[in-house]
Amino acid sequence: MPSTGGRTQRAGTEAVVQGYVVQRGARFYAVIYEGLDPITGRERRRWHPAGTSRDEAELLAGRLAHDAGNAARATGPTLGTYLTRDWLPLKQLSLRPSTWDGYRRNIELHVLERIGRIPLRHLRAEHLERLYADLLLGGHRTTGGPLDAKTVREIHVILRRALDDAARRGLLLANPAQLAHSPKARRLTSATARAWNAQQLHAFLQHAKDHRHYAALWLAANTGVRRSELLALRWGDVDLDDARLSVSGGLVSVGYELHETRGKTRGSRRCIDLDRRTVDVLKRWNRTRLREDPNATNADAYLFATPDGAPVHPQLLSDAFRRLVKSSGLPYVRLHDLRHTHATLLLKAGVPIKVVSERLGHSTPGFTMATYQHVLPGMQAEAAALFGKLLRAPRTSTASTRWKSR
Fold this sequence. Notes:
By secondary structure, the chain is of the alpha+beta class. About 50% of the residues lie in helices and about 15% in strands. The chain has 15 helices and nine strands. The strands form three sheets. It has a four-stranded antiparallel beta sheet, covered by helices on one side. Strands 5-6-9 form a three-stranded antiparallel beta sheet, with no helix packed on it. A two-stranded antiparallel sheet has the order 7-8. Helix 3 packs across helix 4 (about 125-140).
């Protein structure tokens, strides 16, 4: 039976060094357990002959474990320890809760298990490239299939930022992520720009008119606001007399807990004009809330709330929308695609792209153009036809006179 002669253990994702004694016949061995190999994931043990005395073998095991522990400490923290104990806690102070939680989940799900045990100082570009290749082949935690290239690219960006900070702090001589090849950023696909036409949107809103979330879904469809922006609205943000809506923040779920955030960009904080029908929908919702609670429409009360005044959880709204779409028989779209529908219908109707960009809260009209480039070919054809008609139009008398005088 083995007996413990000494142990050096560092908590968390640090290397574990343990010393114990094993007897084989009349001889004893000091065995040093050095944790898992950072590349293969297999356990590492070193056996040292220790003579025929158990006491001497235990002393040797303790000394070797102590020396090995000192050597492990001299290599510095592992990548996993640095990310989870140093970098992520500091980033929690500067990142929005939803962004920080995305960093944490990607690190815990995809990084720690694969390369978290590698000492930070020993991390090389090839470790990262092997990680990306493994994720692209079979990194999906649920299906075991390939992880989307966009997600792998996001993981690369997280590691590059984390290792940049490590290099600035002197924990690394250079950032290996700067040398590692990662999946290229892909262009937006049609899946990110699904939209209903006007008839389909009208049919959906008719189908949802008796649902509690009808007013919220109507407002989302008629303004293009994001889900987080919609659920963060308070009655003080709505001016029903002037038909305007003020958007200044968001309500997001992090670990199913709700957090209020500021807008993603300066453009996200904006005012949106409302049409009279949307104002009427909000007035009816106002009366519904007052019947539930006389204080439900105070300026600081949530615009869309449960009967007891609590904010609607984002996931509950998305689930309700998904069920309504399924029961309507319409083509499947996500709740976020109401935003795409709003933008697409406006652009196809000839609304200037700058106006659409301002309603959506995009940082620049260029971003709007890149996102909705699938709409532009038809608009280009219409513009070409219109210009052709202008050239075929009769010249004005002033222009004709000026031409004849030359």
